[in-house]
TrEMBL record:
Keyword NADP found: yes
Gene3D superfamilies: NAD(P)-binding Rossmann-like Domain
Domain of life: Eukaryota
Protein family (similarity comment): Belongs to the short-chain dehydrogenases/reductases (SDR) family.
PANTHER family with a match to the protein in the record: 3-OXOACYL-[ACYL-CARRIER-PROTEIN] REDUCTASE, SHORT-CHAIN DEHYDROGENASES/REDUCTASES FAMILY MEMBER
One matching Pfam family: adh_short_C2
Gene Ontology BP terms: fatty acid biosynthetic process
Name of the protein described by the UniProt record: Short-chain dehydrogenase reductase sdr
Record GO terms (molecular function): oxidoreductase activity, acting on the CH-OH group of donors, NAD or NADP as acceptor; quinone binding
Keywords assigned: NADP, Oxidoreductase
Amino acid sequence: MSARLEQVSQHLSNAYGRGLLAGEVAIVTGECHGIGRSIALLFAKEGAKVVISDIDAKKLETVEGEIKAAGGEALSVAGDVGADDFPKRIVDATVSKYGKINHIVNNAGFTFDKMLHTTPDETWDIIMKIHVRAPFRLIRQAAPYFRLKPEARENRSIINVSSTSGLHGNVGQANYAAAKAAIPGLTKTIAKEWGPYGVRANTIAFGLIHTRLTAAKEAGATMVIDGKEVALGVPGAKPEETAAKNPLIPLRRGGTPDEAASAVLFLASPLASYVTGHTLEVTGGAGI
């Protein structure tokens, strides 16, 4: 066995014993109602100190409490990821408490669907702001904690969340599809620029994951963005048991937030130590 393989083997043995992300610090943005919550809980279970954010401060407190009740470490920073001061606030809070940053998971987002010919500028702009500008600004703010000298390097990664809408387009989602299509380009650029510093950058593109964003719009879920109430969900979306019959998904079901989180954990963990610039599709086989 080569010295490098022995080193990796020992690292993984230690990691599995203490958790795949033991001693590491991860920022996870957004949606403490679904995928974001599952990512935060799983990362904490795997030994990471998790910094969570969401626009819903009350829900954020609940998730922080869940993590701590399970024996994990967490810090919550409430706020709008699109706000000009947000990147500095969350990076400063993270470094102040934990002294470093190992991972950023840019998960925050929502849909604001309209047919292309009826989409006003503000509906286009807010989706671009949250899904493209906000991740870029957070990553840029955290740059000093990723572009490190060799002796200071640990496992570090950027994971940006995209969607099959960004890979293939989707009716009624010109804004969302365009924003999510920008993510792989941003991610691959990070992989090329920061690879020499040992930083990995990957995109994860989700298909149908059952959350409030993919539930029926008629259910009435909303969120407030820039002072405006935005209806969440997909018009006429079928319930989970009906979606199981979807012939376009080979596994014949939508995914769960926990399954989505497991894929994110893989990309952040040492198991993906030679994976960078990649777009991992988590779709149940849809689109193949």
